[in-house]
């Protein structure tokens, strides 16, 4: 487990950028954190590491955005998915076998994420912009 401290949105993006440089496809990155924690800011920095500089926003209503750059990044938001069956109907499980997948609200389906997933937990710190970002390669560590 590795812990990072961020004092701004820009630092969160830069931490994500550095983490992205250690990832190759196929890989699932589970983003865990409450509303407003910084999951989308993390995603923005992450995709930038692959030469993707266009606007990154949470795919809350579309479920998935695809970004093409040095690698293909699929950015999911599972907030509106109500069951594993519904998640399966989206093609999620087939898609994650091919690209790098950033998965916001992955904690809603942790038991269904691949065991090789990387788990990123983002929690708010003492000040408004402070974030504690924890990377773990084990589900148990990410949820504690």
Describe the structure in your own words.
It is a single chain. By secondary structure, the chain is of the alpha/beta class. It has helices at residues 9-20, 39-48, 84-89, 92-95, 139-142; strands at 2-6, 27-32, 64-68, 72-77, 100-104, 118-124, 131-136. Strands 1-7-6-2-5-4-3 form a 7-stranded mixed sheet. A hairpin with a 3-residue loop joins strand 3 (64-68) and strand 4 (72-77). The chain starts with a strand and ends with a helix.
Summarize the structure.
The chain contains five helices and seven strands; from the N terminus they run βαβαββααβββα.
SSE arrangement:
Layout: E1 2-6, H1 9-20, E2 27-32, H2 39-48, E3 64-68, E4 72-77, H3 84-89, H4 92-95, E5 100-104, E6 118-124, E7 131-136, H5 139-142
Parallel strand pairs: 2-5, 2-6, 4-5
Antiparallel strand pairs: 1-7, 3-4, 6-7
Helix pairs in contact: 1-2
General form: globular
Count of helical stretches: 5
Rg for CA atoms: 14 Å
In sequence order, what are the helices and strands, one letter per element?
EHEHEEHHEEEH
- Characterize the quaternary organization of these chains: single chain
What's the main sheet like? Answer: 7 strands, mixed
Mean pLDDT, rounded to whole units?
90
Structure classification: alpha/beta
Total beta strand runs: 7
Unreliable segments of 5+ consecutive residues: none
Q: In which order are the strands of the major sheet placed?
A: 1-7-6-2-5-4-3
Percent of residues in helical segments?
Answer: 25-40%
Q: Whole-Å distance between the termini?
A: 11 Å
